Amino acid sequence: MLGFLKEPVVVTAKINVSLVALTVMGLMSRLWGLCYPRAVVFDEVYYGQFVSLYMKRIFFVDDSGPPFGHMLLALGGYLGGFDGNFLWNRIGAEYSINVPVWSLRLLPALAGALCVPLAYQILAELHFSHCAALGAALLILLENSLITQSRFMLLESILIFFILLAVLSYLKFYNLQKHSSFSGSWWFWLLLTGVACSCAVGVKYMGLFTYMLLLATAGLHFWHMIGDQNLSNVSLLCHFLARGLALIIIPMGLYLSFFYVHLALLYRSGPHDQIMTSAFQASLEGGLARITQGQPLEVAYGSQITLRNVLGKPMQCWLHSHTNTYPIRYENGRGSSHQQQVTCYPFKDVNNWWIVKDPGMQQLVVSNPPRPVRHGHIVQLVHGITTRYLNTHDVAAPLSPHSQEVSCYIDYNISMPAQNLWRVEIVNRESDTDVWKTILSEVRFVHVNTSAVLKASDGASLPEWGYRQLEVVGEKLSKGYHQSMLWNVEEHRYGKSQEQKEREVELHSPTQMDISKNLSFMAKFTELQWKILTLKNEDTEHKYSSSALDWITMDTNIAYWLHPSSGAQIHLLGNVATWASANAAALLYLCLSLWYLLRRRRRIYDIPEDAWQLWMAAGGICGGGWAVNYLPFFLMEKTLFLYHYLPAVTFQILLIPVVLQHLSDHLCRSVLLKSMFSALVVAWFSWVYFVYCTFSPLTYGQPALAPAELRALRWKDTWNILIRKQ
């Protein structure tokens, strides 16, 4: 039984020494001097705020994209023991001793370093030579812009890593398709493709471009499989389901999991939760939750409520009234009803309280048992402090003359009777018998007499006589359910005091009743995702912003950091030799492809069929990757920066060795031409290395250069190299 012990156990492994060496060089280039400078560098001032909020478990919303990339940066802070206590308010600010700079910058640096071996393997999986794959990896290794971007607490290097991993995984899966379908390795690479795509999208929505490219490629490959008569219908169905599971279902589930973890970590109220609905705010610890915890769930006749406008723009506000009346005449000469003003007030106040009254009864307290208000019921809304009824009539609103004025009715004994009946319409109801619920129900108030809908004007602030509060109107044309017409009950108590003085004391008091209003994860996810997609900060012109056209010729740069006393500085600048070569390679690839297509149309085949298929496959991945990651920026209305081009230029760089090998194999037909071409390639690569070394002081921030040396590096007049005055 123990005979196997008579012989030594031998394990053999194939190690690609080139791949190992490239990985080591990638790590050295990205990790060397990672803590330098020990100061906030460019967008670290932006991402660092979110890392601190993760450390403190405080909820935030970032309209730039999903949370996965932020969580990875926060993971670096967590592993380094960061407590979140640092004021991220200024680029160049020195990090305090409690900030683990190396740990915070580690994951982006590792991702950037691993892009080097990934580039090698992608070219190898495309069936190009070892020299071509090695050249692609070295070009990524010596690309100054990729080094700079990966050495700081930024997301682009992580995004590019997942993009390249997704491409490599799909190529490995596709190459296994011919002889190892449904094997363990086949499933591994297919599933990894979907996971990497989901991670790329989870870091930044720019990852969607490559994800769509791979889905289109997979669809094209499956279309070709349909024409394969050797595959049965059952086999085709299994292939289709496997791809659907791995490339659509699993990525969607993983994307949801990013938000699940994000929301699980950030359970405390913070400054950003005010843009969320009341229901979302109430689900967070602290803030609104401290006020609304345990409120009655069902709104009943006699309920005391505050009504928050669902839109929340330009700021959150609550339905409000006060004793002041509308002026008899406005500045433009139009008259008003001189009734009590009704506004939308952006602060919590006792004058935000209203009482839900049954028009058929006089009592302003909740009966026992409570009589809940349902969808379609007619109610009156009584202002809690002044006891006047919410009213609207055919009088023009002060700032919106095409809408009706909304007021609290004062009886002046003139021919203007009260019109204070409102129909409650629950927009997000599940049935027509739904009960009006605290926080959860989004409600329209439709005026019974005129069919006008209670609405907060879009950003219209009243003059001084209205204390600059937001206008509230009765919208006559109420098509659809615009959020400015929707209201939800935020604070709620069951009224007990019929006497006005006792009621005023009650309105000033907090409530505590034991009813929970927790939102489901999907409800939170849907709301947060919508906010991310629709909440856009005002785009302002930045000193280093640029247009997409500036990127191709690198007519722009970004100064990331400047030493406070010396000339040491860090810039986002690409390797001029590599970027120029990438543009030339893309142009040459396009011209050659058009030439080959025209010739093939005439039944003239200049290159073998397998070489043609290889040429087109490489163009689809490398050229297609450049196009889908670059061209969409011409359609975007946002402030753009040079780093937005980095995913696209990475694919374009991979196209350089593709074109060089093609020229060597198919256009240099003699030994002499091949030798001359090889010598030119060596000279060209020496130029690439020279440019890398020349600009490395601006890539790593050291050594500090003298003003004359800095002027010598201004190869283009449009580059903003910082030179201190002597």
TrEMBL record:
The gene is Pomt1. Belongs to the glycosyltransferase 39 family. It is a multi-pass membrane protein. It is found in: Endoplasmic reticulum membrane. It is an enzyme of class 2 (transferase). Its EC number is 2.4.1.109. The keyword Repeat applies. Keywords: Endoplasmic reticulum, Glycosyltransferase, Membrane, Repeat, Transferase, Transmembrane, Transmembrane helix. The keyword Zinc does not apply. Residues 296-359, 370-427 form the MIR domain. Pfam families: MIR, PMT, PMT_4TMC. Pathway: Protein modification; protein glycosylation. It catalyses: a di-trans,poly-cis-dolichyl beta-D-mannosyl phosphate + L-seryl-[protein] = 3-O-(alpha-D-mannosyl)-L-seryl-[protein] + a di-trans,poly-cis-dolichyl phosphate + H(+); a di-trans,poly-cis-dolichyl beta-D-mannosyl phosphate + L-threonyl-[protein] = 3-O-(alpha-D-mannosyl)-L-threonyl-[protein] + a di-trans,poly-cis-dolichyl phosphate + H(+). One of its GO terms (cellular component) is endoplasmic reticulum membrane. The chain crosses the membrane at residues 12-32, 68-88, 100-120, 126-142, 154-174, 186-203, 208-226, 246-267, 576-598, 610-628, 640-660, 672-692. This is Protein O-mannosyl-transferase 1. GO terms for molecular function: dolichyl-phosphate-mannose-protein mannosyltransferase activity.
